[in-house]
């Protein structure tokens, strides 16, 4: 039977077991939306802005581990989606983004709502396609899903001209796909693995440095096993929060600019760093010349281009972390004596005791860290947590008691303000009954606040905790620290929305809290409300995120906490 | 340091843009670039001459591999390397001199018109450099270089 291009899109999504598409219709994609109208196999969630739609698909993908699907129209529809796509790209999140395009005959004529879509998304996708012939469409759909989820995952964009959605062809969805130009390496080289294990065995001060790859490859149980067996001090990147339970005695916490002192000193003093799906981001390494000067590097990554990109790597292993650890753990059980690192652990524990994560709590004003810790106590242990970007994001990463991977959804690589709320909505769609909480700031929440209505319409109750300091807080902190407190365009105190009314006007529920009691009460009510909730938490305005490695400083030069007042 | 990479890519929409964008986006230089389809196949060969230290070059090769339509990246020191140059001279020159010079560089006079004589030569890029120096006194009006093409020995 012959199907139109639009029907092929729908049938392909069904073949890929897609259960929800996040999107926004428009002229060039109308034929596909007409077919969405006619089917019942999957749901469509209409966002209020294309950026929101893509972040929702992203949040859905992060929380579920499945491929997120977003659909937008040509021109502005696609350009609005760009920030969402780039966010997913930097954090290696599998998405398939389908955009409409002007008819093939109009391409290149500066037609209405025409933009060179594949040109725009080329540097922010794992791969992209312009479908010029409907005959290619089934294979491209298959290839897109395959590319998005295989190897190092990432977003794939398919641009479909309007005439291609009308044209007909015989629909046969490929069962299997094999690309001669794309063959990710999953199994690690056995000899390389053996050499790495020998290096771990020889090391006196090893550190396990766990990154987002541990989440993406589904390797967290093996990573936990490795930590348990070896008792090697372990640090997590922002993207890896939750891979190791927060109460694991060998976890030193987050590493990098706002990591713990102990985690950063572990990296600084280590003689061997074992990177498990991390990529030595500049927010992790601090000043590169001074980074881990005494350490050899074991780097396990499925993307060969990450190895040796930032640091010189003595023991490279290209492969999927899960596959590599499956081969590595038996050798580790055989050869590694966990007691060997006792002295090293003691040194790091002393650092931890000397400079733990802390803040000066206060009964007269809510400290953001307190609100986050309190939320950790009140919310169920399996609550999914998303964040926007800024101070609240770092406080959440530092103070929330994470217990499992995919619990924290945050824009780590791109640092996209406006990510948290739509991502939380997408995640809520994926996780069903679990409580979903978005920590945000009074700056970030205003980007994509329109999605309250989406949450209301599709019954996606998400609790937004706005840690409101009436500042663009992270920039304010840097201005205070490095620009003599010249607060250029960061003070928002003169104009703040009434978040309570704002939420209520779009079917949500709002709270404004100034005391600890009010906060606890509001949070409990918000979780119970089964509505999109906004808790406007008036926090200590001048609280800083500490400790901190100043930009371009070595990890060991951390700014520690201010003295107690 | 000069490096030559030969890249075999699938002939598909936008593949050249993908390669060039990757170089531009990551701040790598392209000294020269030649592309042509490989006969009887679905592939094209790109020859890219680039500058960079070994670490940068390693990243270039890895980033090329990462692009989905890239089939093969060949980096070798053992290439046969050739480049073509075409030069237009005013007709007032002594044709025998120019012809003799061109022959030294595997070339000849390709065309003689009312006002111009056009010479083409094919040789290693360094030799092309030398040829272009040698012909300066004949006041060339226009010089076209093709960029390097290479084949593995």
Task: Quickly list its features.
heterodimer, A: 565 residues, alpha/beta, Rossmann fold, 3 domains, 20 strands, 37% helix, B: 153 residues, alpha+beta, Alpha-Beta Plaits, 2 domains, 5-stranded antiparallel sheet, 4-stranded antiparallel sheet, 4 helices, 9 strands, 41% strand, elongated
CATH topology of the largest domain in chain B: Alpha-Beta Plaits
Number of domains of chain B: 2
Helix content of chain B: 25-40%
Rg of chain B, alpha carbons? 18 Å
Detail the poorly predicted runs of chain B.
none
> Could you report the average pLDDT of chain A, rounded to the nearest whole number?
97
Percent in helix of chain A: 25-40%
Largest sheet of chain B: 5 strands, antiparallel
- Order of strands across the biggest sheet of chain A? 3-2-4-5-7-6
Write structural notes for this entry.
The complex is a heterodimer of chains A (565) and B (153). Chain A contains 21 helices and 20 strands. Chain A has 565 residues and is of the alpha/beta class. Chain A folds into 3 domains: 2-170, Thiamin diphosphate (ThDP)-binding fold, Pyr/PP domains (Rossmann fold, 3-Layer(aba) Sandwich), CATH 3.40.50; 190-354, 3-Layer(aba) Sandwich (Rossmann fold); 368-538, Thiamin diphosphate (ThDP)-binding fold, Pyr/PP domains (Rossmann fold, 3-Layer(aba) Sandwich), CATH 3.40.50. In chain A, the strands form 4 sheets. A 6-stranded parallel sheet of chain A has the order 3-2-4-5-7-6, sandwiched between helices. In chain A, strands 11-10-9-12-13-14 form a 6-stranded parallel sheet, sandwiched between helices. Chain A has a 6-stranded parallel sheet with strand order 16-15-17-18-20-19, sandwiched between helices. In chain A, helix 10 packs parallel to helix 13 and helix 15 (368-378) packs across helix 21. Chain A is globular. In chain A, 56% of the residues are buried. Chain B has helices at 15-25, 54-66, 95-104, 125-134; strands at 2-10, 32-37, 43-51, 70-75, 79-90, 108-112, 116-123, 142-145, 149-152. In chain B, strands 5, 6, 7, 8 and 9 form a 5-stranded antiparallel sheet that branches. In chain B, strands 2-3-1-4 form a 4-stranded antiparallel sheet, with helices on one face. The two termini of chain B are 21 Å apart. The interface between A and B is medium-sized, with 18 and 20 residues.
């Amino acid at each position: 039977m012959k199907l139109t291009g639009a029907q092929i899109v729908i049938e392909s999504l069904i073949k890929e077991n897609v259960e929800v598409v996040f999107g926004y219709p428009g002229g060039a994609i109308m034929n596909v939306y007409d077919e969405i109208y006619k089917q019942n196999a999957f749901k469509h969630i209409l966002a209020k802005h294309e950026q929101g739609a893509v972040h929702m698909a992203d949040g859905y993908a992060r929380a579920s581990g499945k491929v997120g699907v977003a659909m937008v129209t040509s021109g502005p529809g696609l350009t609005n989606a760009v920030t969402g796509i780039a966010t997913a790209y930097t954090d290696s999140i599998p998405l398939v983004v389908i955009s409409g395009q002007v008819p093939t005959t109009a391409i290149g004529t500066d037609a209405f709502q025409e933009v060179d879509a594949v040109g725009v998304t080329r540097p922010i996708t794992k791969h992209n396609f312009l479908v010029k012939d409907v005959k290619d469409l089934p294979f491209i759909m298959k290839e897109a899903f395959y590319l998005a989820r295989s190897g190092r995952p990432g977003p794939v964009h398919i641009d479909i001209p309007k005439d291609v959605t009308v044209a007909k062809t015989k629909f046969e969805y490929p069962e299997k796909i094999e690309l001669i130009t794309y063959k990710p390496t999953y199994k690690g080289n056995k000899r390389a693995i053996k050499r790495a294990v020998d290096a771990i065995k020889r090391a006196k001060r090893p550190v396990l440095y766990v990154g987002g790859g541990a989440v993406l490859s589904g390797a967290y149980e093996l990573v936990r096993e490795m930590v348990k067996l070896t008792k090697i001090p372990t640090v997590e990147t922002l993207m890896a929060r939750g891979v190791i339970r927060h109460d694991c005695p060998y976890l030193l916490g987050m590493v990098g600019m706002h990591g713990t002192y102990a985690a950063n000193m572990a990296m600084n003093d280590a003689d061997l760093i074992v990177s498990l799906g991390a990529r030595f981001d500049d927010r992790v390494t601090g000043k590169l010349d001074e980074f881990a000067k005494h350490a050899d590097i074991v780097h396990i990554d499925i993307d060969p281009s990450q190895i040796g990109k930032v640091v010189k790597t003595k023991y490279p292993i290209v492969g999927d972390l899960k596959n590599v650890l499956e081969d590595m753990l038996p050798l580790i059980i055989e050869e590694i004596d966990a007691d060997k690192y006792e002295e090293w652990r003691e040194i790091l524990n002393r650092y931890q005791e000397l400079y733990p994560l802390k803040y000066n709590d206060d009964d007269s004003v809510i400290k953001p860290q307190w609100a986050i810790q309190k939320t950790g106590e009140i919310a169920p242990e399996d609550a999914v947590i998303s964040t926007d970007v800024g101070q609240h994001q770092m406080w959440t990463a530092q103070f929330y008691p994470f217990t499992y991977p995919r619990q924290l959804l945050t824009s780590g690589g791109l640092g996209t303000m406006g990510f948290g709320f739509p991502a939380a909505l997408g995640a809520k769609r994926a996780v069903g009954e679990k409580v979903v909480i978005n920590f945000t700031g009074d700056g970030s929440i205003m980007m994509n606040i329109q999605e309250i209505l989406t949450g209301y319409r599709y019954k996606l109750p998400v609790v937004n905790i706005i840690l409101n300091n009436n500042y663009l807080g992270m920039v304010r902190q840097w201005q205070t620290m490095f620009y003599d407190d010249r607060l250029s365009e960061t003070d928002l105190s003169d104009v703040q929305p009434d978040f309570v009314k704002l939420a209520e006007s779009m079917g949500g529920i709002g709270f404004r809290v100034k005391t600890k009691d009010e906060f606890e009460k509001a949070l409990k009510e918000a979780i119970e409300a089964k509505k999109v909730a906004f808790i406007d938490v008036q926090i200590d305005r001048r609280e800083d995120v500490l400790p901190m490695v100043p930009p371009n400083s070595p990890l060991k030069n951390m700014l520690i906490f201010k003295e107690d007042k | 340091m000069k490096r030559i990479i030969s890249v075999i890519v699938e002939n598909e929409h936008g593949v050249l843009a993908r390669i060039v964008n990757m170089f531009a986006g990551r701040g790598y230089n392209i000294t020269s670039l030649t592309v042509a389809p490989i006969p009887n196949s679905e592939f094209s060969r790109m020859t890219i001459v680039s500058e960079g230290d070994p670490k940068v070059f390693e990243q270039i090769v890895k980033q090329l591999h990462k692009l989905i339509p890239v089939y093969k990246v060949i980096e070798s020191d053992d290439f046969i390397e050739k480049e073509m140059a075409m030069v237009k001279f005013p007709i007032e020159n002594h044709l025998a001199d120019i012809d003799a010079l061109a022959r030294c560089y595997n070339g000849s006079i390709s065309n003689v018109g009312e006002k111009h004589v056009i010479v083409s030569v094919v040789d290693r890029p360094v030799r092309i450099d030398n040829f272009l120096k040698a012909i300066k006194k004949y006041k060339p009006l226009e010089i076209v270089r093709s960029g390097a093409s290479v084949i593995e020995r």
